Amino acid sequence: MSDERKRARFEVIVSQGGDEIIDATFRNAERGDAFAMYELSKPFVATGGLIARDLDLFDTDVEEFYVVEIDRKVVACAGIRRFAGLAEIFNVVVDGRWQSVGIGGFLLASMLIVLESEGFPTAVVFTKTTKGWFARHGFVQMDPAPLPAERLAMLDPERKSIPMVRPTVRALDSIDALPLITELRVRFELSGLEAVWDDGCDSLLAFAEKNDIETASLCRGGVCGTCSSALKRGTVSYHVRPEVDPGEGSVLLCISRPAANLVLDL
Prior knowledge:
Shape: elongated
Strand content: 25-35%
């Protein structure tokens, strides 16, 4: 890794309701992560979603990779190939247990922030089985002809991978970046209203009030629990750790934002 390339680290606190709080960390991969990344990738290789890579490759090319870690366990990883004027994100994998929690979006948003900070205006991916997921995160199909000759020489025509591209993003952290790369929707089920998340709101409480959804609140700091609401589907991120249990299946609106599409019992 170039000495000029900064080490990356983003942290997020997420929850799908109740007192289960998940701390996830995005960081540069280290040599000790090679086996975990190899094992994570194997199921996707088996289904044809990824190109097979030897364990030695993850070890020798570890500086190209980034991981997401939960409870000191690597649960997601991806790599970046850097060419002159081009950055490619590759080998994007998330442990099946964590796919529904929004870890894939956290990983991708973090990668796009890293690339923007390095001066890359766009990021390219090659996908065979996950075109829809990348499309939902702002990637569009592209003509591979303008790609550098060095990258074109690596293509396997028989694999029929689809090249896609999107702009990188500038953001303070991965949760700030999420609404910049995908449309997050919040449904207030009792009110019958569904709205696109407004990243100008600093919390779900502010977003509910903006949309004239009746809510209760006092402290606005995650201390009293008055704003607790049942989360029927989705994942929220907390900008501070709650000081009170929101109750089974519930979240504190005053200190949370969507980390995925949400359905709230409001």
